[in-house]
Design brief:
The chain is mainly α and 71 residues long. It contains 3 helices and no strands. It is elongated. The chain starts with 9 loop residues before the first helix and ends with a helix. The mean pLDDT is 78.
Length: 71
């Protein structure tokens, strides 16, 4: 939050920014489906993609699901 220190943590800030982008995208992908069944299909597909990833990005998807607005 301190502008004068942001130059010292550019990679961390970039990672946080990317995390937020992917979280928002994931929530949007799920919520653009109107039917619950289709939302579940999208969610399962994202989970399978995340599990196949060599990174720990699956946590991003689950956090996006948790923070997604309830409809």
């Amino acid at each position: 939050n301190k502008p004068k220190l942001k130059h010292r943590a550019t990679n961390v800030l970039a990672m946080i920014h990317r995390f937020n982008e992917v979280s928002q995208w994931t929530a949007s992908m799920i919520l653009q489906e109107e039917r619950l069944r289709n939302r579940a299909r999208v969610m399962m597909k994202l989970i399978r993609i995340a599990e196949a990833s060599p990174f720990s990005c699956w946590k991003i998807y689950f956090l996006a699901i948790i923070k997604a607005p309830k409809s």
